[in-house]
Specification:
Guanine deaminase, seven-stranded mixed sheet, alpha/beta, Urease, subunit C, domain 1, 456 residues, TIM Barrel
Length: 456
């Protein structure tokens, strides 16, 4: 593996304007990047340059390494000195529902009651393009303010909701995945489509948006109870026709849900088998939650190369259960981390890391800070099939990065001041940090200004 700690050969002055006429920027701070998966290789897989830099050439990372060496090698670069801030790849939120922005932190109940009481009434509003556009802009500005530069989001059954989110992401230069949420039963008539409409409207959206700039389409059945076998089959056919798309859905979130699936699909061996029979299992499949899996389901998920997306704040908020991170990682599963807004109670991946730590403690396996950070960056990118593009700081990667203030509040500052190691200094920000910790956000090489990413 290339040694990422040392800068590449210097670029000449003629190149100092960068790709596409953009200037070269040298961002200085404490640089955190990964040489390997810390779950497999231990915390030493995370490499830290305590006085380092990230050289951004246009939309790409050109080099990382010691600050002094990079400044000497690239004297024409514009310098942004973030002091002792931690420079990291931007956070990757691998499962979210942007239409639920307005109902985040709605009181209680279980999953099915929550859908009927809050989610479905809110999603009914997204047939209005102006409303969809306003919420899409608000949502992306909120996640950027929290340091999230990539999301995988469900939209609603309205194509207008998909157009709104992709247009807002394109305007901000963000790499995201999203898709029309398909449902043809067990939902309000105003949100239901049909098997044919789900296929045809999704196909039209794929033609319009998939692969356009940094945008990726995700074929999106909400979950088995809200789709007939005919609709799932139609979406499986669509995925077979467009294999570079992702596929996102829900799997084994709550025990009542499992009972419902068994009643609706009595011929299936288990919940996962419903999707597998329809051709909705394979590399590029993102399954949210995955709490109550059978042994057969775990084996098939691993064999198929699908991704399991851990949504800890949501799982605690709605009372779904405790994700088996240690057991699933030991089996070789591909795992990402997500807020699951608005079932999740925060837009922050820092809060999500803290919740993952707490659930790990309840399961008897305390996750190391390096593992938590990897899940929120490189792990999420790998789950979404984007590990060669985002989720890490390395030459050639897309320049999505963040700077974090590790003393952003008095409570965090007094604790981090006592730290004896790097991770001891970072951990208080994981456990207590919020958008105040985000000192800078760069998307595709461009710094996001406060007006573009308001805090909230």
């Amino acid at each position: 593996m290339r040694d990422l700690r040392h800068p590449r050969t210097p670029i000449g002055f003629a190149q100092a304007q960068g790709a596409g006429g953009l200037r070269v920027e040298l961002i200085l701070g404490q640089v955190l990047h990964f040489a390997a998966d810390p779950f497999a290789e231990g915390p030493a897989a995370a490499l830290v340059e305590t006085r380092g830099g990230v050289l951004v050439d246009g939309t790409r990372i050109a080099a990382i390494g010691p600050a002094a060496a990079l400044r000497a090698a690239h004297p024409a670069a514009r310098v942004t000195d973030m002091g002792s801030a931690l420079l990291s790849a931007g956070f990757v939120d691998a499962h979210a529902h942007y239409p639920q922005t307005g109902i985040i932190a709605s009181w209680g109940k279980r999953l099915i009651d929550w859908l009927n009481s809050y989610t479905f009434p809110e999603e009914m509003r997204f047939g209005d393009p102006a409303h969809a556009a306003a919420v899409a802009a608000r949502y992306l500005d909120l996640v950027l303010a929290h340091g999230t530069t990539t999301v995988a989001s469900f939209c609603t059954s309205h194509p207008e909701s998909v157009d709104a989110l992709f247009a807002a992401a394109e305007a901000r230069g963000m790499r995201i995945a999203a898709g029309k949420t398909c449902m043809d039963r067990n939902a309000p008539p105003g949100l239901c489509d049909t098997a044919e409409r789900a296929h045809d409207e999704s196909a039209a959206l794929i033609a319009r948006w998939h692969g356009r700039g940094r945008l990726v389409y995700a074929i999106t059945p909400r979950f088995a109870p809200t789709s007939t076998p005919e609709q799932l089959d139609a979406l499986g056919t669509l995925w077979a026709d467009h294999p570079t798309c992702l596929m996102q859905t829900h799997l084994s979130e709550q025990t009542e849900e499992l009972d419902w699936v068994r009643a609706l699909y009595p011929e299936a061996r288990d919940y996962l088998d419903v999707y597998e029979r329809a051709g909705l299992l394979g590399p590029g499949a993102l399954f949210g939650h995955c709490i109550h899996l059978t042994g057969r389901e775990r084996m098939r998920l691993r064999e198929a190369g699908a991704a399991l997306i851990h949504c800890p704040t949501s799982n605690a908020f709605i009372g779904s259960g405790l994700f088996d991170m240690a057991g699933l990682i030991a089996e070789g599963q591909r795992v990402g981390l997500a807020t699951d807004t608005g079932g999740g109670s925060s837009f922050s991946m820092l809060r999500t890391m803290a919740a993952a730590y707490e659930i790990g403690q309840l399961r008897g396996r305390a996750l190391h800070p390096a593992e938590l950070w990897w899940l929120a960056t490189a792990g999420g990118a790998r789950a979404m099939g984007m590990a060669e593009r985002i989720g890490n700081l390395a030459p050639g990667m897309e320049a999505d990065l963040i700077a974090l203030d590790l003393a952003s509040t008095p409570a965090i500052a007094q604790r981090s001041a006592r730290a004896g190691t790097f991770w001891e200094a970072v951990f208080p920000t994981i456990m207590m940090g919020d958008d105040r910790a985000i000192a800078g956000v760069w998307v595709n090489g461009q710094r996001q200004r406060p007006a573009e990413a308001p805090r909230g």
